[in-house]
Design a protein that fits this description.
The chain is 38% helix and 12% strand. With 395 residues, the chain is α/β, with parallel strands linked by helices.
């Protein structure tokens, strides 16, 4: 086994944000990704990107600090920027600013939306394997998570979903469905037809849909994101959107809750104090990202497309038993490691023997055992080294 650190080439000079920072620079960061594990571990796990801030975002933060503009958030500039972005990027002009609200971040926004449309003890349906905080946050707010596992193709299994909707409707006063779109960890982009089918089933069985659309700007070449609220029958849905993932702004929190036309009354009941939980500097940064960060985002998306191709090539060469289909969205890779014979948690083996940190698939729920999630939002050099270490961990 040869999982020990070795010299990693510095990224080449380029417009690609993923190739702008050296490993030495990244190791100076104090956030979760780079401080959870010892320095000999290569971290490709939690959803932070190894990028510098987009200049329009950095400028907005610098200007706010210089002015002392660090009070409470106000106004609708963030929602307006998001509406403009939705029109340009997704061809959707239905994001009405008057049906929006600022929330602290997407997960806390989900909690608040679920409070509006469900009650204590009610059920919340999720498509497993899915983002682990869905289980944690929903459980902590006294709701019961019920899984409707994805199909083997990583897409919604509508026979399963309808059966689950039918069952939860019988046992819950106000059931809800927490839709992950695009899906984390699989990277699946739900089609307009699939989302319309979701809306139809939800209306048939009286299930309220809350959509987590945080990864919406991160779409691979050739794929198309469809906002849930844009499809027929989704008018009573609620969505959470943010610039957080696409511009690496998790540390300066802000998000937008969006209501469909038939859910405006629900959103109007959101307590005013919820909006105070967002960072004002975060709101300014997110607004700048959506307004002026398009060129930076395009360069990032091109770099992610390159990294998906690179990972597929590296796995085919060094770990051919690992099944990987490059995703249509997110900067995450969902790797099927079951054929390696490493048990339910291969991430533990790759960490111990290869000194590379990946997300274990187990916390993602049913369908996650034997999988790992790898963060592609880093340089090609670090991805190459990570796969080398993973292969060496099997020797």
């Amino acid at each position: 086994m040869d999982g020990m650190p070795r010299d990693i080439p510095a990224p080449a000079a380029t417009d690609n944000p993923l190739r702008r920072l050296t490993l030495e620079q990244l190791r100076r960061r104090t956030s979760m990704k780079w401080r959870t594990y010892p320095q000999d571990v290569l971290p490709l796990w939690v959803a932070e990107m190894d990028v510098p801030l987009a200049e329009p975002v950095a400028r907005a933060v610098r200007d706010a600090v210089a002015l002392g503009d660090t009070g409470y958030p106000a106004g609708t500039a963030y929602a307006g920027a998001l509406a403009d972005f939705a029109g340009k990027r997704w061809g959707w002009d239905g994001l009405a600013v008057e049906r929006t609200a600022i929330v602290p971040d997407v997960m806390l926004g989900i909690v608040e939306m679920l409070k509006l449309v469900s009650g204590p003890g009610d059920t919340v349906v999720v498509n497993s394997p899915v983002y682990p905080p869905f289980y944690q946050f929903v459980g902590h707010m006294d709701r019961q998570v019920v899984e409707a596992p994805l199909g083997e193709d990583g897409r919604i299994d509508f026979e399963v979903l309808e059966d689950v909707f039918r069952r939860v409707r019988k046992g819950a006063a106000r059931p809800a469905y927490l839709l992950c779109s695009p899906h984390n960890p699989t990277g699946t982009v739900h089609s307009a037809e699939e989302l319309a089918q979701v809306a139809a089933l939800a209306r048939t069985y009286g299930v309220r849909v809350v959509a987590d659309e945080i990864h919406a700007p991160l779409i691979a070449a050739g794929a198309r994101f469809v906002p849930y609220l844009s499809v027929p029958g989704a008018g009573n849905g609620l969505s959470l959107m943010s610039a957080s993932k696409a511009w690496n702004l998790a540390g300066i929190k802000a998000a937008v809750a969006v209501a469909g036309p038939d859910a405006a009354g629900d959103l109007a009941r959101l307590p005013e104090e919820v909006g105070h939980g967002a960072s004002h500097v975060g709101v300014l940064a997110h607004t700048a990202a959506l307004r002026d960060g398009g060129a930076w985002l395009d360069a990032l998306l091109a770099g992610l497309d390159d990294n998906r191709r690179l990972l597929a090539e590296l796995l085919a060469e060094s770990l051919p038993a690992v099944r990987y289909a490059p995703a249509e969205s997110t900067f995450l890779a969902w790797l099927d490691c079951r054929a390696l014979g490493l048990g339910d948690d291969p991430a533990a083996v790759f960490l111990e023997r290869g000194r590379v940190a990946l997300n274990s698939g187990v916390p993602f729920g049913t369908g996650g055992a034997g999988f790992v999630r790898l963060n592609l939002a880093t340089s090609p050099e670090l991805i190459t080294e990570a796969v080398r270490r993973m292969a060496a961990a099997l020797d």
